[in-house]
Amino acid sequence: MPVGEAVQGFSWGQAIGSSLYNRILIFVKRHSDCACKMNKSLTTLLKIVVASATLAAAGAQAQLVGDINAGLARATMCMGCHGIPDYRNSFPEIHRVPMISGQSEPYIFAALQAYQKGERRHPTMRGIAGGLSEQDMANLAAFYAQHNGHAQAPETPPRMPNAVVAGLLERGACISCHGANFSSPTDPSWPKIGGQHADYLFVAMRSYWVEESRVIGRTNPMMRSIVAQFTLQELRLMANYIATVPGELATIPPGRLPR
Ligand code: HEC
Ligand code: HEC
To answer: 222-245 pLDDT, tens per residue?
Structure first.
């Protein structure tokens, strides 16, 4: 993968995280002839990048405090898609729109920023995020983060994956970042994915594969290097399993206000 380009698109933009990650990518490239060695080293190095990115992300949103009521008012324009259970989007292929009620507050903020900056290229969400101020984003994040009826994921998935899927999840070190239950990310600005729609999880992972397009794709370098290790079929197997894990995400129709 093009290391330089990916690092330029690093959503937090913080120097520490970026340069460390650049080194990791180069390291992974050098060792990719030995899968076992790579995975062991990858896991250790991921821990380093996780620690530095956590520090960086903590500073990013520090000045902005989200106002839940202002977020509720702004969310009227989101409800037509994110408030209708199983609502489908047809681009770039038919899939359900993601559940965002109960998603973590810093992640919602970071995702909206990534659409606005073009690091995530989905045209509908780019258009919507383009019209939001940073304060709007903080308000919407505060509103949606607690808009799930206080659902809490069990600490570990009640149904473990089969041996094939377990091997894939281990290869990608998924739980080291997304948490043992896929709903407790190491850094709060990373997504909860447990119980998310399977078709959306697949489309989202696939979008990190795309490199040269103005209308589809995502540039996050961590997920780009992760998905590069898998075939589409393997991504689909993981998406199908993660969608069955009980999570904290929900689609809540308009009219049901937070309590
Ligand atoms: C016309 C339908 C539509 C509307 C309206 C809409 N969204 Fe979205 N939203 C989508 C789709 C489709 C995606 C998935 C895009 C992708 O694949 O990156 C998405 C993705 C997102 C994500 C990323 C979720 C994740 O798990 O990464 C967030 C956050 C989000 N939307 C918030 C909002 C907010 C806040 C509003 C209102 C201000 C809004 N959306 C309005 C369709 C919509
Ligand atoms: C080094 C940390 C790290 C590892 C390891 C990791 N992820 Fe991620 N993941 C992230 C981050 C950070 C994002 C958000 C990227 C962005 O903003 O586009 C993300 C995003 C995602 C998304 C999109 C979620 C959404 O709501 O749009 C999916 C799906 C996903 N990861 C699945 C996985 C799977 C499956 C694995 C293991 C094969 C994995 N991740 C391993 C950090 C990681």
So the answer is: 999 999 999 999 999 999 999 999
- For 207, the token pair is 């979008």
Range of the domain at 164: 66-242
What are the pLDDT digits (tens) for 14-44?
A: 322 333 344 344 334 433 433 444 455 555 5
Tally of structural domains, the chain:
1
In the structure encoding, which two tokens stand for residue 217, read together?
């794709």
- Which of these, 4, 83, 42, 93, lies nearest to 250 by C-alpha position? 83
Q: Is the CB of 176 under 6 A from ligand 2?
A: yes
Check pocket membership of 140 for ligand 1, CB cut-off 6 A: yes
Is 23 within a domain? Answer: no
Ligand number nearest to the C-alpha of 125: 1
Q: What is the pLDDT of residues 115-134, one digit of tens each?
A: 999 999 999 999 999 999 99
The alpha carbon of 235 and the centre of ligand 1 are apart by a number of angstroms equal to: 21
Q: For the whole model, what pTM was predicted?
A: 0.84
- 29 belongs to a structural domain: no
Tell me, in angstroms, the distance from the centre of ligand 2 to residue 159's CA: 21
The token pair at 44 is 């250790």
CATH number of the domain that residue 150 is part of: 1.10.760.10
Residue nearest to atom 39 of ligand 2 (CA): 174
Q: Are 106 and 152 in contact (CB under 8 A)?
A: no
